[in-house]
Amino acid sequence: MYTSKSVRDYVLSTAAREPVPGGGSVAALAAALGAALMSMVCNFTAGNPKYAAVEPEIQRILAGAEALREKLLRLVDEDTQVYAKVTAAYKLPRGTDDEKSARRAAIQDALVAAAEVPMSIARAARDVALLCRDLVGIGNPNLVSDVGVGVLLAEAALRGAALNVEINAASIKDAALAGQLRSFLAAALPEVAGIKEEVMAKTMAVIAGGAG
Fold first, then answer.
1. Quick one: angle between helices 23-43 and 55-90, nearest 10?
2. What is the pLDDT of residues 3-23, one digit of tens each?
3. 8/23 Cα distance (integer angstroms)
4. pLDDT tens digits, one per residue of 22-62
5. 138 — phi, psi (to 5°)?
6. How far is CA 98 from CA 32, 40, 78, 95, 103, in A?
7. How does residue 119 score in pLDDT terms, banded at 50, 70 and 90?
8. Burial of 95 (0-12, 13-18, 19+ CB in 10 A)
9. Do residues 195 and 127 touch, judged by C-beta distance below 8 A?
10. Which of 118, 145, 127, 115 is nearest to 188 (CA)?
């Protein structure tokens, strides 16, 4: 389990001449860190009398960020596991017609699974970005830069996950399924890009005006 490694060991594993962890796993980790930053900002806001009016919303955002962080940490490892299944499928024997047919089916099943995991990462990254948008105007302004970092990580994670969806979808024979995968991304990518711009503009405005 890569999530049980130290940060240094995970980075070294990523740098090694090994196929995993790769871009999908790294994207999941980036989004998990973005969610963690949202939790931190909420924890520095919740319970403070200065922000009592937004306490219910802060608690909602905090609960969402906590759930997304845990989901994304699971996906850090799941992405490495589905890649192994794709590799194993391509190594299946193909000496007879039956073996060739079984191998083709196994490859398609593995590719679908390998696309669904980064799709889950992409959906979660979008949700992290939505929480950043909700938090930027109400969280403790002394930590507004952390909200900005969070939304940048969320967008990077979404874009990274999208690449991993696409590279698998390109080989999926089920055109309808591949189309569904691409349809979500076609809507989510510009949406989150817009959220990033909105959050960053508000972040910079708070910084320019003086956080405290």
1. 170
2. 999 999 999 999 999 988 999
3. 17
4. 999 999 999 999 999 999 999 999 999 999 999 999 999 99
5. -125, -15
6. 43, 55, 30, 8, 8
7. very high
8. exposed
9. no
10. 127
Domain extents in the chain: 10-14+19-209
Distance from CA of residue 168 to its chain's centroid? 17
The DSSP secondary-structure symbol of 21 reads S
Report DSSP state, residue 16: S
pLDDT in tens, 72-118: 999 999 999 988 888 899 999 999 999 999 999 999 999 998 899 99
**CA 32, CA 10: separation in Å to the nearest integer?**
14
Q: Exposed, middle or buried, 7 (CB in 10 Å: 0-12/13-18/19+)?
A: exposed
What is the reported pLDDT for 211? 53
Quick check: 24 and 161 in contact, CB under 8 A?
yes
Q: Could you give the count of Cα atoms lying within 13 Å of 153 in the half-sphere of its Cβ?
A: 25
Domain 10-14+19-209 listed as CATH 1.10.150.130: no
Q: Outline where the chain has alpha helix (H).
A: 7-15, 23-43, 55-90, 97-135, 144-169, 175-209
